[in-house]
Amino acid sequence: MGAKQGSRLLNRFIEQIRWEPGIGDPTVMGWLTVVAYFVTFVLGLFVVMRSDWLFQGRRDKQKRLWMLITVAMLFLGFNKQLDLQSLFTDIFRVLFREADLYDNRRSFQKLFILSVLLGGVAATTWLLYQYRKLLRYHVLAISGLCALAIFIVVRASSFHGMDRLIGFELLGVRINWILELGGIALIAVNAFRLLARQTPIVIRKHRRRRKRRGPEHMALAQQIQRANSESLR
Fold it and tell me: Exposure pattern of 34-45 as b/e (b: 16+ CB <10 Å)?
């Protein structure tokens, strides 16, 4: 009885989800964005493949960053047409209805967006701190990756105010095109600049220089040494 009831609840839950696998954005700009994701994925993959030569200092740290970027570009390229964020939105919509919280969903959406923005700022700050000594080589990629993460999660929240904002057109160009393609472009430019380098990135550890003792310090040290030797006689 418990298994049958669980099966019925699961079937009812699935029936309420409106998302279906297919082409999420069949427009020219949609396919252009997919191409941009996959081109950036290829550039990032080349950076990872050349990392043994390209990164001569702190190689593992820099290689991990570009492996993360490469995987993210591949996933987001497929996600652009599969529209998995709509599935995410549908799942939470059904959960809120089952929990009798659907009428208060706007408050939760506002809290969600605020949390995402704060989390994005925190993640960006953490990445910038972790790569502060390498920032000049990866700042565009880190900025683009964080911008894409915030844009996609906020887009998935399905908050109408945000939908109107990112759907706003400026001279025939939508803001969401600028945000998404802008983030991809930052990562692609960073990858291209790394691949175009003729010399590897060499990070040397800074060693503390010992202060040279002046003549006065040397004379004082000799006096102390003589005084110690005389006291031992």
Answer: bebbbebbebbb
pLDDT of residue 1: 47
Residues 6 or more apart whose Cβ sits within 8 Å of residue 144: 182, 183, 184, 185, 186, 187, 190
DSSP class per residue in 176-214: HHHHHHHHHHHHHHHHHHHHT-SS-B--PPP-PPPPPP-
C-alpha 87/C-alpha 115 separation (Å) is: 20
3-class SS of residue 233: coil
Burial of 169 (0-12, 13-18, 19+ CB in 10 A): exposed
Summarize pLDDT for 197-218 with one digit per residue, the tens.
Answer: 988 887 766 555 545 555 665 6
Query: How far is it, in rounded angstroms, from Cα 180 to Cα 35?
Result: 13
pLDDT of residue 170: 59
Model pTM score:
0.70
CB 84 within 8 A of CB 24: no
Spatial contact of 188 and 44, defined as CB atoms under 8 Å apart = no
Token pair 């565009």 is found at 140
Rg (CA), the chain: 28
